[in-house]
Design brief:
two-stranded antiparallel sheet; alpha/beta; globular; 8-stranded parallel barrel
C-alpha cells in the first residue's frame, strides 16, 4: 500500500503461463492474472497462479470474476468470489481485481466492501465494471471512499483511446487520491497520445501479437466448443516484443 500514486507502470494482462513468461521477459511491472481473456476474463485457476507465483518475482493481481456478462451478482456468486479472494490472499497474491454493480448501474458498496474485507491488506483494483456504471465520476468517489487502490478503465468507451475525454475527467477528479489505469486496446501506437491528453501514466495491456496457429492437424471445422465467432485453432498470447515496446514508452512518460 506504500507505492506512490500515478508513477509510470505497465501491467501485463495474461491468462496463461506462456503469456506470463512473455510479459515478464518484456519488462512488465505487474501482472493481472485471469482466465478466458477472449470473453473479458474470469477468475483463474489457483494452480496457474501457483505456477506463475513460484517462477516469477513480480507482483500478481488476480481477477475475481465468476462468469462473463454483467456485474450484478447473486448470493451464491458473492460467496464464491469471497472465497476466491481469501484463497488468493492466503496464496500470496499482491492484490485482487473486483467489481460489483447495483441494478441501477452504481457501484454496489455493500458487496464491494464484503469482498474488500476478505482482501485484508492486499491492493484492490476496481475493474472495468467501472465502465458500465451510470455515472463514472460518482463511481470514482465511491471507489475512493471504499479504499480501492486503482481503477482500471477505458473511459466508458470501447477502448481507451476512444474514451480519452472521460479518462481525462476521471484522472483530474481523482486528483492523486487513487490510481487511474487506462486499459482496453492499449498499444505502443496509442500510449503517448492517451498520456498527453489525459495525464495518465499507468497502463494495462495484453501485449498481444498476431494469433498463434494451433498445432492441431485434424480440424473439425463444423463444430465450435465456445463462441462461434472465435476460431478453435487460434491461440492469443502476449508477445514480449510488443509488451516491451509498451513498457519503454510508459517508463519514459513525464520525463
Amino acid at each position: 500500500m506504500g507505492r506512490e500514486i500515478n508513477l509510470p507502470l505497465l501491467e501485463g494482462c495474461v491468462d496463461s503461463y506462456v503469456s506470463a513468461a512473455a510479459a515478464v521477459a518484456g519488462g512488465a511491472d505487474r501482472l493481472e492474472l485471469c482466465a478466458n481473456l477472449a470473453i473479458g476474463g474470469t477468475t483463474p485457476s489457483p494452480f496457474l497462479f501457483e505456477q506463475i507465483h513460484r517462477e516469477f518475482d513480480l507482483p500478481i493481481n488476480v481477477l475475481i470474476r465468476p462468469r462473463f456478462r454483467d456485474f450484478l451478482y447473486d448470493r451464491q456468486e458473492m460467496e464464491e468470489m469471497a472465497q476466491s479472494v481469501r484463497m488468493f490472499r492466503e496464496m500470496g497474491a499482491n492484490g485482487v481485481v473486483i467489481g460489483c454493480l447495483t441494478p441501477e448501474g452504481a457501484l454496489d458498496q455493500d458487496r464491494m466492501k464484503a469482498l474488500m474485507d476478505q482482501a485484508g491488506d492486499m491492493e484492490v483494483t476496481l475493474h472495468r465494471a467501472f465502465d458500465m456504471t451510470r455515472d463514472p465520476l460518482e463511481a470514482l468517489e465511491t471507489a475512493v471512499t471504499l479504499g480501492c487502490r486503482t481503477i482500471l478503465t477505458s473511459g466508458q468507451a470501447q477502448n481507451a483511446l476512444a474514451g480519452k475525454e472521460t479518462l481525462r475527467q476521471v484522472f483530474q477528479q481523482a486528483a492523486g487520491r487513487i490510481d487511474i489505469m487506462a486499459g482496453s486496446g492499449v498499444k505502443k501506437e496509442n500510449i503517448r497520445e492517451i498520456y498527453q491528453y489525459t495525464g495518465i501514466r499507468i497502463f494495462h495491456t495484453t501485449g498481444r501479437g498476431t494469433a498463434v496457429d494451433s498445432g492441431m492437424r485434424y480440424r473439425k471445422e463444423t463444430v465450435s466448443m465456445g463462441l462461434p465467432s472465435l476460431s478453435e485453432y487460434e491461440l492469443w498470447r502476449t508477445d514480449h516484443g510488443e509488451l516491451h515496446a509498451c513498457v519503454q514508452l510508459v517508463h519514459s512518460l513525464g520525463q
